[in-house]
Amino acid sequence: MKALKIFEEAYEKEVIEKNFSRREALTRGLGLGLKTALAAVPFGLLDALENKAQAAPSTPDIIKILNYALTLEYLEDTFYKQGLATPGLIAAGDMNIFMQISKHETAHVALLITTITALGGTPAAPPTFDFTAGGKFPDVFTSYQRFMGLSAAFEDLGVRAYKGQMLNLAGAKEVLYAALNIHSVEARHAAEVRRLRGSKGWINFAEADGLPGFIYDGEENVVQLGIDVTKVTTVSYGAVTQAFDEPLSMPPVMQVVGPFIQ
Amino acid sequence: MTLAGGSLILGLTACRKEGQPGSGGVTDVGSADIGILNLAYALEQIGAAFYIKANAAYYNNAPLSEKRVLFDIMHHEMAHRDFLKALLGSNAIRELQFDFSFVDFTSRDSVLKTGKLLEDTDVTFYNGIAPFLQSTDHLKIPTKIVSVEARHSAALRDLLYPKSAEFAGDDIVDPLTGLEFSFTPNSTANGQSIVATINTFLLTKISALQLP
Question: Are B6 and A227 spatial neighbours (Cβ–Cβ below 8 Å)?
Answer without folding.
Answer: yes
